[in-house]
From TrEMBL:
Signal peptide: none annotated. It catalyses: D-glucose 6-phosphate + NADP(+) = 6-phospho-D-glucono-1,5-lactone + NADPH + H(+). One of its GO terms (molecular function) is NADP binding. PROSITE patterns: G6P_DEHYDROGENASE. This is Glucose-6-phosphate 1-dehydrogenase. The active site is at H239. The lineage of its organism: Bacteria, Pseudomonadati, Pseudomonadota, Gammaproteobacteria, Oceanospirillales.
Length: 491
């Protein structure tokens, strides 16, 4: 990443909240540490609380000590970063408060401005309206919209429409932090920067694609919030569908925002609807029960504080998606995500078809495995390709064994710190590069597909299937690919 030299004001609404302290401010600190912020770029926290700039700086210093170990003892970056920091008390529901941003000279002297809305989506419309009423919506000013962007198509459309009354599409950056991960961007590099993979990236060569985002944590004291969202809204509608789009999209004409997003929307429009009785053949939903993770007993979903035993909110979803176009006809995409699962990881598995004819002995044929390309997003970022190789030795016959060809980003670039997703995305907003952000029609198309599934679930009295914490979800989810003669990668 090359330095962004243009001065910018970064205003964070919800500037004292968890997201700001854990992710946004540490990301900005790292950008400063790497020399990627212009000398006069300012960072302004904005929230309802009445605190001084000095108190705000002290709170950020404590957050950096906790979430950025490299900041401890860093006597070079912190003094510079501290000078960038200031605070303005703004109640997002009081339009008159926004005059304080003018008093703070936000956006003056033709500076670009990034308004990061790290607040409830219910406030997005009123914040944008108040900004506009105080002249803070010029073309050089941009808004970043955190997820979740609504609960369904109707509410998402209402939020977007409110934002669009005061900011145009080119000014709206709808963020999904998964798209800022190095390995997600490397997926594009692997496909479109090499002659090896793209010719084999279709139904003639690929048997199935699996996308898993697995968490070991539960709702962690946020039962009320999570129960209004669930795994489908919280994870599938944005993270998993965005990963699916990057795997399945056609090569864009250019590597720019609209070219990439034009190809992604084609994938979304080609997704086969899952509705009615078909939802019970193609989807599985579950709720975690008591169990054990890493040797420790953990609570079930209904043992969490504030829980309601009548809830039918899913904490796990597995589904089969089909893309009705020439490239992917007949190739199932298996998507899976859940809380309190056996291991924390996120990965994309490209499962290739078997060789059409094996020339090897019966023993070698029993060992013969299909090629797999595995793109691991977390906890470590790496890419591996499984190929068959002869076992070294002079024994009679040809003994084969699967071998992984690994690209570890940590090992390959051991002199480079792998940036957090928010670092890349915040820098892209400051540069006005929307390639890794979602466009209005993308969000709508994703919600339309998800709404069909959730509508089918709501038309029945069937509850989500229970699964033990520490397992891999309900037994029915294991059977989902088995019905097609396949298995999940980890089974």
């Amino acid at each position: 990443m090359k330095a962004s030299l243009k001065a910018c004001d970064v205003v964070i609404f919800g500037g004292g909240g968890d997201l700001a302290m854990r992710k946004l401010l540490p990301a900005l600190y790292h950008l400063d540490m790497d020399g990627l912020l212009a000398p006069t770029t300012r960072i302004i926290g904005a929230s309802r609380r009445e605190v001084s700039t000095e108190e705000y700086q002290t709170k950020i210093r404590a957050a950096l000590d906790e979430f950025v170990p490299s900041s401890i003892g860093d006597e070079k970056t912190w003094p510079r970063f501290k000078e960038r920091l200031s605070y303005v008390s703004v109640d997002a529901q009081q339009e008159s408060d926004f005059s304080r941003l003018n008093d703070h000279k936000v956006g003056q002297e033709d500076r670009d401005v990034v308004f990061y809305l790290a607040t409830s989506p219910d406030l997005f419309g009123s914040i944008c309206s108040s900004l506009a009423s105080h002249g803070l919506n010029a073309d050089r000013m941009r808004v970043v919209l955190e997820k979740p962007l609504g609960r369904d198509l109707a509410s998402s459309r209402a939020i977007n429409d409110e934002v669009m009354k005061n900011f145009n599409e080119q000014q709206a950056f709808r963020i999904d932090h998964y798209l800022g991960k190095e390995t997600v961007q490397n997926l594009l590099a692997i496909r479109f920067g090499n002659t090896l993979f793209e010719p084999l990236w279709d139904s003639a060569h690929i048997d199935n694609v699996q996308i898993t985002v697995s968490e070991t944590v539960g709702v962690e004291g946020r039962w009320g919030y999570y129960d209004n969202a669930g795994a489908m809204r919280d994870m599938v509608q944005n993270h998993l569908i965005q990963l699916l789009c990057l795997v399945a999209m056609e090569p864009p004409g250019r590597m720019d925002a609209d070219s990439v997003r034009d190809e992604k929307i084609k994938v979304l429009k080609a997704l086969r609807p899952i509705a009615g009785a078909n939802a019970y053949n193609k989807t599985v939903r579950g709720q975690y029960a008591k169990g054990m993770i890493k040797g420790k007993d953990v609570k079930g979903y209904f043992d969490e504080e504030g829980s309601n035993p009548d809830s039918r909110t899913e904490t796990f979803v597995a589904l089969r998606a089909d893309i009705d176009n020439w490239r992917w006809a007949g190739v199932p995409f298996y998507l899976r995500t859940g809380k309190r699962l056996g291991q924390r990881y996120s990965e994309i598995v490209i499962q290739y078809k078997a060789v059409p004819h094996s020339i090897f002995s019966d023993e070698s044929n029993r060992q013969l495995q299909r090629n797999q390309l595995i793109i691991r997003l977390q906890p470590e970022e790496k890419i591996s390709l499984t190929v068959m190789n002869k076992v070294p030795g002079a024994s009679e016959g040809m003994n084969l064994q699967p071998v992984d060809l690994n690209l570890s980003l940590t090992e390959a670039f051991n002199d480079k710190r792998s940036p957090e997703a928010y670092e890349r995305l915040l820098l892209d907003v400051m540069r006005n590069d929307a390639t890794l952000f979602m466009r209005y029609d993308e969000v709508e198309a994703a919600w339309k597909w998800v709404d069909g599934i959730m509508s089918a679930w709501n038309q029945t009295s069937e509850r989500p299937k229970e699964y033990a914490s520490g397992s891999w979800g309900p037994a029915a989810s294991m059977a989902l690919p088995i019905k097609d003669g396949r298995n999940w990668h980890d089974y």
